[in-house]
Amino acid sequence: MKQSFHKIPFLRPAAAFSIGIFTGSYFQVNSVILYVALIIIVCLLFWMNSNYSFKKTIWFGVGMHLFFLGTGLLIYQNYNRKPEFYKNGKFVATVLEILQEKPNSYQSVLEIRAIKTGDSLIYAKEKIIVWFEKTEESKSLKPGEMIVFNKQPQIIKNSLNPFEFDYKRYMARKKIHRQIYLSSHNWALCELQSPVHLSIFAQQARLRFLEIYAQQKWNKHEMELISALTLGYKQGLDPDIKRIFTSAGAMHVLAVSGLHVGILYLVFNVVLGFLRKQRIGRIVFCCLVICSLWIFAFITGLSPSVKRAATMFTFLIIGLNLKKQLNTYNTLAVSAFFLLLFNPNNLFDAGFQLSYSAVLGIVFLQPRFEKLYSSRHKIKRYLWGLLTVSVAAQIATFPVSVFYFHQFPVYFWISNMLVVPAVMVLIPLGIGLLVINWLPLVSVLISKVISLILSCLLFLLELVENLPNSVLDIYILSWELAFLLAMLFFFFLFIEFRNKVYFQSGLFFMLLFLALSFGIKTVNLFRREIIVYNYTGQYVVHFIFGQNNYIVSEESINESENVNKMINSTVIGFGMKSPRYLTCNEFYNDSILYLNSGFIIFDGKIIRFHSGNKQATSSIIPDIVVGIPENSKNENRISAQMIVSSVLPVNEKFNTLHILREKGAFRESW
């Protein structure tokens, strides 16, 4: 085992560096202390190296690990240092991204370049997320254009609902901390020249390519799919298309990343593979392929996922073609280290984790799976290879994908057998169409072939989606993810080294995972809880009684409403049955819940709804009031805010006041 890890010399520095980044995300350390500590460590390392002895070897190794750990911590803190938040004045900002159409607005990202206060101009550099009012003027905004606005951006906040996605942290890791909504009278175009920015040029190029696609005689779904597959533009993707690809286990092909870069590499390998027969040819091959991959990254808008994939394949291509003996794991460790060095937040990115998990799974497991079956027929060998790649990648990415997306597509192996060959044809055709669109006959022919392939692919994926139990809803917590990763790690070690200790360790973590998961599910069977969601549309209350649960709201909830995502997250997280949906003014009665015109009796608790100006009249004294009681002394102060208030049973004065907009969801369990 020791000799095996010696073949991966960069693994330990990369691991220590990653641990330092992870530590920095939870603990803040004074930068001066870190710099001093790193200088001391470097001095000690030089001293030990100049006075080498066998006894000092272990301490030299410890020092190196501490150096990379401290460096990771320091780089994380410096990279994530918050910009200065200016509050007053006129803001001058550059549009960074193509505007995305939302139901009631256009969304983009701005970079504040300067703030004008009085006669002074303060230069700044802060990215913010923006929503523009839907007007013809805002619709025509393009990346690189500059605008002026005088409205103050607001700090991004979470709704603090149960099992909620941490949007604030997600945006902070993109270095975006504030947001703003700009109506038509809040902003104006600015005549200033936008600074030179490579990512803006990339966005402008992608916008031009989208216009070329728009000229083709495709239907809406075909246009959306080819834009996502070749340009990584998913903003206009229809929800039904997303559902089909997600249920079929093929959603990864719509996010331009490692798969697409890998397919391009395979295409170039087939077309230019003859160059690899000679030493000079290999150098030319490397230069051509690497340049082509980065051009592809450019036309897709230089999105973080494509840049990561292009960087990873750049290292792999150099290693494969310029070295006689290559350790793929070492090449992966080097590429990961450099990606984290320039952006330590990559470590927490789902795409980064899934990309490296998939590649490791394919490199480690796929050759072993492939040996289980052999055939003389090329088609059978190709299909078996495709199946083994899909299964290997799915095994390696299972813990991470379930943790982030809470779903497992059962028929992923069928979908990938359909999707991967189709994408291998669609990507070269889509890029080819962009290059030769000026040739009418050829471009029309390519356009029709693309349309035919997309129609067939969508039809087949719909069939897969409609198979029984195509998707399993699974929710795992962070500690469950850690146990699953540890289990996979030790089982992989057992496969490699055949040491029963590794098998026993993997079995231990598997049993620990099952035991604790079973314990949590048992506890959830006895859960009694009331949740009032922080939702701006209306009051939505979730009553939980073991696996049975009820949603009571002011008005009926449509399937398309965002509140359904919050509800479903709670249902899956607690492993409950599908909830029963009720409105507060109807009548309902069973052994668990009684509802009648705004009054609810649930497991001994009495809850009263105040919906709008309506107030239920009764002598019943509630334990909890949802809404704003008309006789509240605080009504004028908080009349515009949604609250949950507990009241004293005698005089009905407020005992506690919970303002949802400020404190997040209200929860009471017993």
Structure, explained:
The model is unreliable at 612-617, 632-642 and 647-652 (pLDDT under 50). The strands form four sheets. Strands 1, 2, 3, 4, 5, 6, 7 and 8 form an eight-stranded mixed beta sheet that branches. A seven-stranded mixed beta sheet has the order 15-16-17-18-19-20-21. Strands 14-13-12-11-22 form a five-stranded mixed beta sheet, with helices on one face. Helix 15 (378-405) packs across helix 16 and helix 18 runs antiparallel to helix 19. Strand 15 (587-589) and strand 16 (593-596) form a beta hairpin. The longest helix has 28 residues, at 378-405. By secondary structure, it is α+β, with helices and mostly antiparallel strands. The chain is built from 22 helices and 22 strands. 29% of the residues are buried.
Layout of helices and strands:
Elements: H1 2-6, H2 11-24, H3 31-50, H4 57-79, E1 90-95, E2 100-101, E3 105-117, E4 120-133, H5 136-139, E5 146-149, E6 154-155, H6 167-172, E7 176-182, E8 187-190, H7 198-214, H8 220-231, H9 239-247, H10 258-272, H11 279-299, H12 304-322, H13 328-342, H14 350-370, H15 378-405, E9 407-409, H16 412-435, H17 440-465, E10 471-473, H18 478-497, H19 500-525, E11 528-532, E12 540-545, E13 548-553, H20 563-573, E14 580-583, E15 587-589, E16 593-596, E17 599-602, E18 605-609, E19 624-626, H21 635-638, E20 643-647, E21 654-659, H22 660-663, E22 666-669
Parallel strand pairs: 4-7, 13-14, 18-19
Antiparallel strand pairs: 1-3, 1-5, 2-3, 3-4, 5-8, 6-7, 9-10, 11-12, 11-22, 12-13, 15-16, 16-17, 17-18, 19-20, 20-21
Helix pairs in contact: 2-4, 2-13, 3-4, 7-8, 9-17, 10-11, 10-12, 10-16, 11-12, 12-13, 14-15, 15-16, 15-18, 16-17, 18-19
